[in-house]
Amino acid sequence: MNSETVAVFDNYIEKHGSQILAKLRSIETRENKLVQDFANLHFVRENPKYHGDVSTFAHSLGVVECLDHIYSFIFSQEKSEHIDVVALQSSLNLLPFKLDSHLEKKIGNHPRKELLFFACIFHDIGKLKNFTHLMKDVDKHQVKGVAKFLHHADFGSHYFDHEVEDLNELKLKLLHESEELDGDKKLSIEQKQVMSHFYESAIFYLDELLHEFSIRKEFFKKLELGHDERKYVAFLIKNHMKLIHLYQYYSDMLGAKSKSRNNMLNGCVRTIFEMSDEWGDKFIDCFMLNFSDLLESVHSSGKVTKPLYDFFKFCMLAYVHKAELLHDKGGMVVDDSGSRFEKVKTVSAEQLEAVKHFLEHEGIGAGFIKDESALTMSEKEFRGFVARQEIPRKLMGGVSKELNAHR
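Given the sequence above, the corresponding structure tokens read:
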């Protein structure tokens, strides 16, 4: 185990305690495939556009350092020049629960904070063999030696938890994307050859992940990482890119014109609602990993951090006021810039019942309409959803009529 990794592990164990890291630290490197694979990220270069001109190993340690500073503030009120504690506290104060208490709750035999930190260390392990170094003319930027990755969050999640159905689904996705290369007129022959080899390597690595999982599983037993703990870690890793994409969209929104800006603002809010639904009680856990990843990227790229902390607060406002924004007629939330979140107009329970009654009267079963999901849709989204159920087109007019009549 190299000195940098040892220092990170020892620092965290001393400050916060960690059964997992202590066990990982005690296992000899030659027997420790997990640490070997992590160390091999030294040989993978990040794209400077996203994470600075560093190796994936250095980036990962940087993300770990960011989360460590955040933990030190949350659990010990220890301030650091690496984080804006005032901005951070302002956002965390919005939560309807204490974050330290939430992170102390256990998944299996380990507290969330320990598993979250573990996931943070290995969040980019899916980049290990799942990359290609782009040559000149392979992409529009004509950059040499920059790594490009394929679905690395999915690969990383399968490192810790193999679900054969999910693996097969990912393999089919890769095969489909590979087949589409031939019809892409924007790519040169050289580009297609490189990308085709890229997909072949990625599919081979996916098979290798599945084949070697039983070996990794035995190693996870030594760390006392059971099924629930591995599921949790895999879930966090699988979803660690989503906030990064949203932050890019949010940044574009800030520079947009007024009308477009409001539409984009609402789009950001809806995305946070979707994340909240998908992530459930792991929302803030996923968010902390995503935010640490973003914070390291901002630091390593030499950018200012204020927009990122503003984004943090924006997300917390939308998350905390979700019910109010969706259902309360008078509900309104304003972000720091003064822009208001428009109330999302969703279909009402009365509208749903009217549509169900109409369809059943026409001899169409309405069992496909699930209230919990449908009540989060706009009328336009709901009409599209109903239409996709192969409802006769002549009946869609009746669906619209019922929606309009029961507003």
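Residues 134-146 have pLDDT under 50 and may be disordered. Try to locate this feature in the token string yourself.
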